[in-house]
Specification:
The protein has 10 helices and 6 strands; from the N terminus they run ααββαααααααββββα. It is mainly alpha-helical.
Length: 302
């Protein structure tokens, strides 16, 4: 519909930015610096990992440049402007229907009251009293729910750290050589499963909290549910991605003084070609799994 139509300019600009990165695939000075480097890097794990050369990440550096180049900054600025323009166009689009249907003075709360009177002419207004105790209880429960969601994101970090250690010390040479990348992939799959399960849990918790609030009307309950569901889903969907984008590789210490979990497992580092590779792998796996499984369920289930 309307939203899909307005996405066309953003899709065109995104394709142009991608083609820009593809056009300067081999001539970019940063890629040349990485591919021609003769710099020995520290081992990526404690036991079986040896030193490695920075030039070994040449392929990853080239792939990263396709999605993280000078044009990406322009695309981010364009999307910020596009979001504002889309919002204003949507207001105009909505206003055109308001004029066509002559519903200038429509009020959702009044409509709810009228429907109650139509369905039951003898209905009586219910008294409403605000309870500070209920509000405090709901606030505490929301905070506990957010702590749980953030705890799950921390659990994913620990899972990737342990998976990296186990894979790097394993017998399979292919997995031990790419332990960090495989751990990121497994973490992305676990993140997707967490998202799927917590989406259902968040909905039930949000509905329960709304029933505890005892709001004035159905419209108020709907607004309260929207705010709670949006908050829970934001932390569920983006906590792990925010960690990868802004914290991964910045709090892991230095050679000789690495930060360790329980003093044993070394905190994970960014991919040798940069943190954007970890973020790209995680987002790509989540998007592919989500779209694929959603389509499978949509076409297979009645």
């Amino acid at each position: 519909g309307w939203y899909t139509f307005t996405l066309i300019p953003a899709a065109i600009v995104g394709i142009v930015v991608f083609l820009y990165g593809l056009a300067f695939f081999d001539s970019n000075p940063l890629i040349k610096e990485v591919c021609e480097a003769d710099i020995i890097m520290c081992p990526l794990c404690d036991k079986k990992c040896g030193v490695w050369n920075l030039s070994e990440t040449c392929t990853y550096a080239k792939v990263t440049h396709l999605f993280d180049n000078e044009g990406t900054v322009f695309f981010a600025m364009f999307m910020a402007v596009w979001a504002t323009v889309f919002l204003e166009l949507w207001k105009r689009h909505r206003a055109s229907y308001v004029c066509a249907w002559k519903v200038f003075n429509w009020c959702e709360n009044e409509e709810e009251l009228i429907l109650e009177l139509v369905n039951n002419p003898n209905c009586k207004p219910t008294p409403y009293s605000h309870s500070y105790l209920r509000s405090t209880l709901v606030l505490v429960l929301v905070t506990l729910m957010l702590v749980l969601i953030i705890g799950l994101a921390i659990g994913l970090v620990v899972f990737r750290v342990v998976a990296t250690v186990v894979l790097s010390e394993g017998q399979w040479e292919l997995l031990s050589e790419h332990a960090s990348t495989v751990a990121v992939m497994l973490g992305a799959v676990m993140h997707y499963l967490t998202m799927t399960i917590m989406t259902k849990v968040n909905r039930r918790v949000a509905l329960y909290l709304c029933s505890l609030e005892k709001t004035r009307s159905f419209a108020a309950t709907e607004k309260s549910f929207t705010v709670k569901m949006f908050t829970f889903q934001f932390f569920t969907l983006f906590s792990s991605l925010i960690y990868v984008a802004f914290f991964l590789g910045r709090i892991n210490g230095r050679p000789g003084g690495y930060v360790r979990i329980t003093g044993k497992w070394r905190l994970e580092e960014c991919h040798p070609s940069g943190c954007i590779t970890d973020l790209f792998i995680q987002m790509a796996i989540i998007m592919v799994l989500k779209q694929t499984l959603n389509n499978v369920f949509e076409f297979s289930a009645p």
